[in-house]
Amino acid sequence: MTLYPAYEKPMHTCIRVNPKEQTVNIGKNTIDLTQQECLLLLTLAKKPCSTISREELLFTAWDCSYPIKTRTVDMHIARLRKKIGRKLIKTERGKGYSLQAIKLN
User: How many domains does the chain have?
Assistant: First the structure.
């Protein structure tokens, strides 16, 4: 089955990010996101099923161009998981995070 980035087409017809409205549609549910959650989810959606490092997420979603030690990414991932479900974002210990293309019930 072909995967499409969530910002272009729904993954398995179940997830679509709307940056203008700062929402994500999962199935028939529309979930409001903060601006930062939306940027983070879009960054993950551009490379579905690929692990993106914390550093790359900071650089892309926060426009942070220098390496820093922070738990900001982890905090926002935790908040995002509470809103969209734990199964959609996978942690690759020591490497980063990835948006999973899964079939939702």
Answer: 1
